[in-house]
Amino acid sequence: MTEPETWKSDRIGSARAGTNPTVLAKLPQSFAVIGDTQFLPGYCVLLVDDPSIDRLTDLPKRQRLEFLNSMDTLGQAVEAACRAIEPGFRRMNYEILGNTDPCLHAHLFPRYEWESPAHIGRPVWLYDPEEFYGPETALAPRHDELRLRIVTELADLGAAT
C-alpha cells in the first residue's frame, strides 16, 4: 500500500487522527466522509466514530438516535449541494447495510434524472462494478467544488462538532 493510501486500511482511526482526507466533518457519533468513488456525484458515507460498533443496535438508544440524526443532517447537506450544482438531481437514497465492513456506517447516494433507465428506481448496487469503482469515477480535484458545498451546507446546518 502506498503511503498516501494507508488511511484506507483504517478509515475510522485515520479520521480520528485527522489523516483521512475524505473527512468532511465530525458529527455526533460519526464522521461524514465523501466517497472514494463519485459515480453518483455527492456520494457520501457516514462512519461511526467508534470502530468497535458493529451495528446500529450496538449503540445505546440516545447515541443511536444521534447517529441517525447525523445521517439525516448529512443527507440534507448533500441534497442542498447537489441541487445547487449537479444537473438532474432527483432524490437521496440512504442505506445501512452491514454486509461487508465490520463497523456501522451509512451510505448516502444522490440519484439523478440522467441515470440510465436501467438504473433509475433500482438499487445503486446493480451498477456494473467498473462503472461504480472505475478510475474515471474516482474522487478527484474535479469534485472539490461539490465537496466544499457539502462542507458549507454542514456548517450552515450547525452540524459539525
Write the layout of secondary structure elements.
Layout lengths: L10 H7 L5 E5 L2 E5 L9 E5 L12 H25 L3 E7 L9 E8 L16 H5 L10 H13 L5
Antiparallel strand pairs: 1-2, 2-3, 3-5, 4-5
Helix pairs in contact: 2-4
Spell out the key features of this protein.
161 residues, alpha+beta, five-stranded antiparallel beta sheet, 31% helix
Describe the structure.
This protein is an alpha+beta fold and 161 residues long. The chain has 4 helices and 5 strands; from the N terminus they run αβββαββαα. A 5-stranded antiparallel sheet has the order 1-2-3-5-4. The protein is globular, with a radius of gyration of 15 Å.
Mean pLDDT across all residues, rounded? 92
Main sheet summary: 5 strands, antiparallel
The total beta strand count reads: 5
- CA-based shape: globular
Helical coverage, percent range: 25-40%
Count of alpha/pi helices:
4
Structural class: alpha+beta
User: Roughly how many Å apart are the termini?
Assistant: 32 Å
Low-confidence stretches: none
Strand order of the largest sheet: 1-2-3-5-4
C-alpha Rg (nearest Å) = 15 Å
